[in-house]
Amino acid sequence: RKEVEQDPGPFNVPEGATVAFNCTYSNSASQSFFWYRQDCRKEPKLLMSVYSSGNEDGRFTAQLNRASQYISLLIRDSKLSDSATYLCVVNMLPGGGADGLTFGKGTHLIIQP
Amino acid sequence: DTEVTQTPKHLVMGMTNKKSLKCEQHMGHRAMYWYKQKAKKPPELMFVYSYEKLSINESVPSRFSPECPNSSLLNLHLHALQPEDSALYLCASSTRPGLAGDEQYFGPGTRLKVS
Lengths: 113, 115
Fold this sequence. Notes:
Chain A contains no helices and 11 strands. By secondary structure, chain A is mainly beta. In chain A, a hairpin with a 4-residue loop joins strand 7 and strand 8. In chain B, strands 2, 4, 5, 6, 9, 10 and 11 form a 7-stranded mixed β-sheet that branches. In chain B, strand 5 and strand 6 form a beta hairpin. The mean pLDDT of chain B is 92. The interface between A and B is medium-sized, with 24 and 32 residues.
């Protein structure tokens, strides 16, 4: 069973639309959850951490459902610059901290003009 | 400023060469990481340093040898690599080992080609 699963896409979405990505993780003891974005041939950049209470940063909203082991990312009013690969990332070991991150394979998003 | 720097940006080496990748951060972070990323794949963890001590080695072949000379620097020494080791090597750092929810910040990576 894969540890962090995402739909690879691609998602082709018109500019201005709302798009949602989901991700599931296998280790119920996982403590830390993140969304990163990665542009072609660049490093992953932290988009936002994901908290149980849900959190919002501008056009981006992240949700965590621990019971279902499910993480989501919602992008409102999508821009051309949102085109990227979105990586669902989990710190798999309990206690968080200096442990390596486990990445999903990423969801490729293409915003079309 | 969440900046992690890596040198060189690109590296081509033969299978008998010895080279080193360097990573530096001046954010006072006490955990540093090496990841390997192949094309169209997610990053995979190689090593974790916590307070300058190696805490995780994800069964990486001995031709990769990490070193953490001080809290700001992380090196990856390469020797007798194989063509399948060609990849993007990413360094990351985070604030404090043991801190739940600690966010990792990535450097731009070194794109390595072994021929």
